[in-house]
Specification:
Strand content: 35-45%
Structural class: alpha+beta
CATH topology: OB fold (Dihydrolipoamide Acetyltransferase, E2P)
Order of helices and strands: HHEEEEEEEEH
CATH class: Mainly Beta
Number of helices: 3
Shape: globular
Protein name: DUF35 domain-containing protein
Helix content: 10-25%
Radius of gyration: 17 Å
InterPro entries: ChsH2_C, ChsH2_Znr, NA-bd_OB-fold, Thioester_dehydratase-like
Length: about 150
């Protein structure tokens, strides 16, 4: 198999893992493509939510808008995956799955890039927008450094 076919096979496998883009979640994916994290925000109570939903889980209002958020948060938990579970991730093993608590409130599960050896609970993180193997931009996070804050 050629390198091009290998890459195409990996991309196709990876694409199958991504959620379908629908009219309801398109603002999220469009935001990532433009380098910003967009979340639904309830017009009634101001609660941010992720993933998208038709009603606010806090007040049950169906009125909302999509708003760009800071992309900053805190690392609450993580696991380094060594075991092979999905062939789409063979090229990146081991990889880290992280539970991030966004500054705006909702948690999000993602991965970290440039992972240091000494991870700790509550480290500050920032959004990183990486081109995926498909045509979509993928949200990942990086540990925020003092240089990032400057």
């Amino acid at each position: 198999m050629s390198v091009q076919n290998d890459t195409q096979s990996i991309a196709e496998s990876y694409d199958r893992l991504l959620p379908e883009i629908t009219p309801e979640n398109r603002p999220y994916w469009d935001g990532l493509a433009e380098g910003e994290l967009r979340l639904q925000c309830c017009d009634a109570c101001g609660e941010y939510r992720f993933p998208d939903s038709e009603v606010c889980p806090r007040c049950l209002s169906g009125s909302f808008g999509w708003r760009a958020v800071s992309g900053k948060g805190r690392l609450w938990s993580w696991i380094r995956m060594h075991q092979r579970y999905l062939s789409a991730f063979d090229e990146v093993r081991p990889y880290l799955v992280a539970y991030i608590k966004l500054d705006e409130g909702p948690p999000i599960i993602s991965t970290l890039v440039d992972v240091p050896d000494d991870l700790e609970f509550d480290l500050p993180v920032r959004a990183v927008f990486e081109p995926g193997l498909s045509e979509r931009t993928i949200l990942k996070f990086a540990i925020e450094t003092p240089e990032d804050a400057a």
